[in-house]
Amino acid sequence: MSTLAPLNTLITRFQEQTPIRASSLIITLYGDAIEPRGGTVWLGSLINLLEPIGINERLIRTSIFRLTKEGWLTAEKVGRRSYYSLTGTGRRRFEKAFKRVYSPSQPAWDGAWTLVLLSQLEASKRKAVREELEWQGFGAMGPNLLGCPRSDRADLAATLREQGAEDDSIVFETHTQEVLASKALRAQVRESWRIDELAEQYSEFIRLFRPLWQAMKDIQTPDARDCFLARTLLIHEYRRLLLRDPQLPEELLPGDWEGRAARQLCRNLYRLVQGEAEAYLERTLETADGPLPDANESYHRRFGGLT
């Protein structure tokens, strides 16, 4: 455990989850810390890194086996040691999700919408397509109608194709609206994307991590391990929130939207701890060639630039 009470609260909270989300945390660790530094580490050093969070060796090995079986990770044996890295598929999956986490700001919205009508799909397939589109930020505008104010047309086409729904889905694109967010549209957005529920989750994130930020910014030389633990739990929780967040344009969100404050807090705490966290990673993780390579350029561009 740490000497910082707010950090201990977060560690205990993670440990008390039933079941404990070890696989999800390992994916967070690969995306946040390992992938920018070559992407491959020795399993033994990974076990040492995660032990302070309360994940024992047996659970880590079980989780790594499961992630390998599911196509997230691939293993390479060097002597008696196993080194794990993300597969190509795993890397594409995490890049799409983590891109949201570190981007400095949202692109401007021109007021256009993409609408997808699923009424011609079989009921069983319609459910699967709806779930995939909701993950991309679409919301239910009607019984079989999904809408998104800022959709990537290539991603949409790829999703419909992968689901075998391309020929039976109807896609519309609206023109830019003079009034981007009328009273009726804001009410519809609140209903279609369950904005109030998401706002409560962002408030909980702020309640958990603001005391940690306040405690750490007053420490002249923070403990490197504490910085690593803080950064990992921060990005783990924030990533899980963003997976539920449709990333709606500012014009459609409430004036007191908690997501703004949560993002600012995440950026500030990450910038505060990342330097010492990187030092701890260098001391703890090993590759087949020895120490970790330096972090790549994309790492230094996170949150608009790290120093």
3D structure, described in words:
The chain has 307 residues and is of the alpha+beta class. The protein has a domain of 62 residues: Alpha-Beta Plaits, CATH 3.30.70. The strands form 2 sheets. It has a 4-stranded antiparallel sheet. The protein has a 3-stranded antiparallel sheet with strand order 1-3-2. β5 and β6 form a beta hairpin. α1 crosses α9. The protein is globular, with a radius of gyration of 21 Å. The mean pLDDT is 90.
- If helices are DSSP runs of H or I spanning 4 or more residues, what is the number of helices? 12
- Terminal residue distance: 28 Å
Helix fraction, binned, reads 40-55%
CA radius of gyration is 21 Å
CATH architecture call of the domain at 114-175: 2-Layer Sandwich
Record field, number of beta strands: 7
In the sheet with the most strands, the strands line up as 5-6-4-7
CATH top level assignment of the domain at 114-175: Alpha Beta
Task: Report the CATH topology name of the domain at 114-175.
Answer: Alpha-Beta Plaits
Q: Please state the overall shape, judged from the principal axes of the Cα atoms.
A: globular
What is the overall pLDDT average? Answer: 90
The major beta sheet can be summarized as: 4 strands, antiparallel
H/E element order: HHEHHEEHEHEEHEHHHHH
Helix and strand composition category: alpha+beta
